[in-house]
Amino acid sequence: QVRLVESGGGLGQAGGSRRRSCTGSGRTLSNYAMGWFRQAPGKERDSVAAITRSGVSQYYVDSVKGRFTISRDYAKNTVDLQMNRLEPEDTAVYYCAAAVTASSSSYKVTSSSYDYWGQGTQVTVSS
C-alpha cells in the first residue's frame, strides 16, 4: 500500500504560478498511474491531469491545457503539478491519486479508477 503526501499549493495570484508535489511512501510510484484532481465548493471532484507509469503520455482537462504540467521524478518518488497563469477559477482543493495498473502506457481520468488518495490541499487564487 502506498501513502501519498502532498505539499506546495496555498495562496496564489491570478497570472502567477504555484507548484504542487505528491510524494509516495511505502511503495515506488513507478508502479502506479498517477493523477491530480480538484474539487471546488459545491462541485464534484474532477480530473485535472494524469500521467502514465512510463511518464510518456499525459492527459489534461481542457481548462488547464497549456497552463498546467504534470511530471514524474522517479528518483525522488514524486509526481508534480506545475500550475502557471493561474486563474481564480483554479481555486479548489487539489488531490493527488495513484491507480494500480499493469499497463505502463495508459492513464486514468475518472476518480473511480484510482486506488489511493492524498490528503488534499487548498489552492486559492486571488484576482
Walk me through this protein's architecture.
It is built from no helices and 11 strands. The strands form 2 sheets. Strands 2, 4, 5, 6, 9, 10 and 11 form a 7-stranded mixed β-sheet that branches. Strands 1-3-8-7 form a 4-stranded antiparallel β-sheet, with no helix packed on it. A hairpin with a 6-residue loop joins strand 5 and strand 6. It is mostly beta strands. The chain is 0% helix and 50% strand.
Show the helix and strand layout.
Blueprint: E1 3-8, E2 10-13, E3 18-25, E4 32-39, E5 46-51, E6 58-60, E7 68-73, E8 78-83, E9 92-100, E10 116-117, E11 121-126
In short:
By secondary structure, the protein is mostly beta strands. Helices cover 0% and strands 50% of the residues.
Short descriptors:
11 strands; 50% strand; 0% helix; 127 residues; single chain; mainly beta; seven-stranded mixed sheet; four-stranded antiparallel sheet
Query: Which residue ranges are poorly predicted, with pLDDT under 50 across at least 5 consecutive positions?
Result: none
Overall shape: it is globular
- Cα Rg: 13 Å
Number of strands: 11
Please, what is the average pLDDT? 95
Spell the H/E element sequence: EEEEEEEEEEE
Oligomer: single chain
Helix content: under 10%
Estimate what percentage of residues fall within beta strands. over 45%
Q: Specify the biggest β-sheet.
A: 7 strands, mixed
By DSSP (H or I, 4+ residues per run), the number of helices equals 0
Structural class: mainly beta
Distance between the termini: 40 Å
